[in-house]
Amino acid sequence: xxxxxxxxxxxxxxxxxxxxxTNAIRNIPEADRAELIALLEAVQAQDVASKAAVQAAxxxxxxxxxxxxxxxxxxxxxxxxxxxxxxxALMAKLIMxxxxxxxxxxxxxxxxxxxxxxxxxxxxxxxxG
Length: 129
Known about the structure:
Blueprint: E1 6-10, E2 13-17, H1 22-26, H2 30-61, H3 84-101, H4 108-128
Antiparallel strand pairs: 1-2
């Protein structure tokens, strides 16, 4: 199996190409080739746009070198990339915050209230009915 082979379908026709297979590329009809080129150009444009967005986000997130002062009066820490352990710790912290903010479920007292309400309603219907 070719490691660089790509299989795709254009207009119901399946093609399997690799960069080194010039005969297969030449055998694609011109209309299908034009559609494939347009698709690849759109993919390339999205790739460039996403890289630009990442760079813009990284540029806006960096801290200036004038060593700004934090609320505690000390200098702010330098911006660094998070390692895998840092990401795991951050995710664990966010999960714990979410659990803490979550509305508690039914308690025994709540269940007793609901059951008691239904018993009172049933007894009321039995007496009135």
